[in-house]
Amino acid sequence: MPETQPAGDTPAPPRPRLIDRLPLPNGLTLEVVDESRVAAGDRWFVRVRFRAEIPVTPEIFERAAVPGVTYADYTAHRGGAVVYEALKERTFLDAGEKDAAVAEIVARFKAHSLAYVAHPDFPVGVVRNDIRDFEERRRWGRS
């Protein structure tokens, strides 16, 4: 006999599921995480997160340097890493389309964005943008 849930209880949302961990030639590792969940009935909200943690080494910081910001000050406030994330979403999909949609999102990212994230200068660019954000927030007193 199948197990049933007590009336009024709703099932817990599915936990994020690591789909892939891609080592990149620039030294980063790109994690691909399926964060899809049921939206209503048999309809799904499909979300795939692409995430890479970029360590802020002295070498990367020096290449990304922004005048007026020191490595010690930056890392004291921001920590030793910057996280790159990209979210790709599709909404209100039939349950039977969910897995194909996740696979399509991953395939499109790999085809169109992976070379950008794997580029040797990508970590420096992301860190530079974060240093600029840090400096702007500091000027406005919001670091």
Structure report:
By secondary structure, this protein is an alpha+beta fold. The chain has one domain (17-137). The protein has five helices and five strands, in the order ββββααβααα. Strands 1, 2, 3, 4 and 5 form a five-stranded antiparallel sheet that branches.
Mean pLDDT: 92
Structural class call reads alpha+beta
- Cα gyration radius (Å): 20 Å
Distance between the termini: 58 Å
Shape: elongated
Sheet of most strands: 5 strands, antiparallel
Uncertain runs: 1-5
How many discrete structural domains?
1
Helix content: 25-40%
Strand content: 25-35%
Number of helices: 5
Q: What's the helix-strand series?
A: EEEEHHEHHH
Number of strands: 5
